[in-house]
Write a structure and sequence with these properties.
The structure is a single chain. The chain is α/β, with parallel strands linked by helices and 239 residues long. 38% of the residues lie in helices and 14% in strands. It contains nine helices and nine strands. Pfam families: Hydrolase.
């Protein structure tokens, strides 16, 4: 028997990841913009500020390209370069992360399953279709099409209502403390933080559970939660 009435997941970097040849994508963006390439993708990513801005992905990438251009002494239009990058990216090129299919199946055995993504349907639909996700879950909420996105409570409230469950009886699994864990807390859901690095600390956020892989989700859903610490670590046990 499951300890939760329903389970929901974040999409990007929780259930799936982009499956592009990143180097080729980077070069195609420069070619489309008519700019002589400089730098490498590995240099660009650290120059971006936090998670992508769902309202302005071009501006978000453009800020990174502006910093990269300054480091390489190049005089370019970073917004045009970012727009080219977005244009050549194929949102359908995604793949499930390890353990995602099993986690979805375990969640379906426990009760209704939902997905809540901060992106709009116009962009995220290609990922959903490529993954066959609509056949695996009972509801998908595209917070990018709502007045407020995560970490606001509204998208979580919408998902819980669609699944016909009480928010306090629902578990939300996501990789972002600032968006997924904070949003679930604000909406009264319980949260499981998908930690990518065992050395990462949850503080100052307090997820209800910490999992280091999606393989741990199945045990977390059982009534005993994988006693003995095999499945997940409760935040209080982490100090």
């Amino acid at each position: 028997m499951s300890r939760f009435a329903a389970v929901a997941f974040d999409l990007d970097d929780t259930l799936c990841r982009h499956d592009h040849d990143v180097d080729a994508l980077y070069r195609r963006a420069f070619e489309r913009a008519g700019v002589e390439p400089f730098g490498e993708p590995s240099e660009l990513w650290p120059l971006l500020d936090g998670p992508p801005d769902p309202d302005d992905r071009v501006g978000y990438l453009g800020a990174g390209f502006a910093r990269l251009a300054a480091q390489h002494g190049r005089d370019v239009d970073p917004v045009a370069l970012a727009a080219a990058f977005e244009a050549v990216a194929d949102e359908s090129r995604v793949a499930y992360l390890p353990g995602a299919a099993d986690a979805l199946a375990a969640a379906a055995d426990a009760g209704p399953v939902g997905v809540l993504t901060n992106g709009p349907e116009a962009r995220q639909r290609a990922k959903v279709e490529a993954l066959g996700l609509a056949d695996r879950v009972d509801a998908i909420v595209y917070a990018g099409d709502l007045p407020r996105r995560k970490p606001h409570a509204e998208p979580f409230e919408r998902l819980a209502a669609t699944l016909s469950v009480e928010r306090r009886e629902m578990l939300y699994v996501g990789n972002s403390l600032a968006y997924d864990v904070a949003g679930a807390h604000n909406a009264g859901l319980r949260s499981a933080w998908l930690r990518r690095d065992p050395d990462d600390a949850a503080a100052p956020y307090r997820p209800d559970y910490v999992v280091d892989s999606l393989d741990e989700v199945a045990a977390l859903l059982t009534a005993d939660g994988g006693t003995g610490g095999e499945a997940a670590t409760r935040t209080e046990e982490n100090g």
